[in-house]
Design brief:
Length: 201
């Protein structure tokens, strides 16, 4: 009887823990898709969709126990929710309501501000100095309009991020394509090293 009670207690605790983790996951997904996608370097289309793999990549950086987060975990989160807050179609996911984003990340070619910013991990600076800023697993390089946003993005990659200054006007003049995201984010195909000012932390 004692053993049975212990097993039931452990099972109950595991259910509560899993429920708590799914609640945490749901909150993080909502934050990423509804409110501040630029902090997760997500690219939402005009209908609010983001690639599932890009979201998973960002979430895996958030917590150590999310290192192996997979699409089936998102599906379980959706199934366990008391309200239908998100939906998945194929390889894309979006929030259904509650957006506070002033405009999705539309691909609108435009002339950028003179200077933009990019927060990153100090460990990748040598690579950036050699090759510039590249989209990596995303479609575009994400750039911030101010240092505060760049720092917030950078702190998701490192506790002591480096803030790079991008000479965006000069880059655009020499043929680098920039796209207006929203009031805080600009996108670019890539930024060559000669348009990047290094060193500020």
């Amino acid at each position: 009887m004692v053993i049975l009670k212990l097993l039931l207690l452990r099972f109950s605790q595991s259910i509560d823990l899993r429920s708590f983790q799914l609640t945490d996951l749901s909150r993080a997904v909502s934050h990423a898709l509804r409110h501040e996608p630029w902090l997760y370097e997500l690219e939402l289309d005009d209908e609010g969709w983001a690639p599932v793999e890009d979201l998973l990549f960002a979430l895996r950086q958030e917590r150590e126990d999310w290192n192996h987060l997979a699409k089936q975990d998102l599906a379980l989160m959706l199934k366990a929710s008391d309200k239908q807050r998100h939906e998945i179609q194929g390889d894309k996911i979006r929030a259904l309501y509650g957006h506070s984003i002033a405009g999705k990340l539309k691909r609108t070619p435009a002339s950028p501000p003179d200077i933009l910013f990019h927060g990153t991990n100090p460990d990748v600076v040598p690579q950036i100095k050699a090759k510039g800023l590249l989209p990596m697993n995303r479609q575009y390089v994400h750039l911030s309009v101010d240092t505060a946003t760049a720092i917030a993005v950078g702190k998701r990659k490192s506790k002591t991020p480096v803030i790079l200054h991008v000479l965006s006007h000069d880059a655009a003049t020499e043929g680098v394509h920039f796209f207006k995201g929203n009031e805080r984010v600009w996108l670019a195909d890539k930024i060559p090293p000669k348009f990047i000012v290094f060193g500020e932390q």
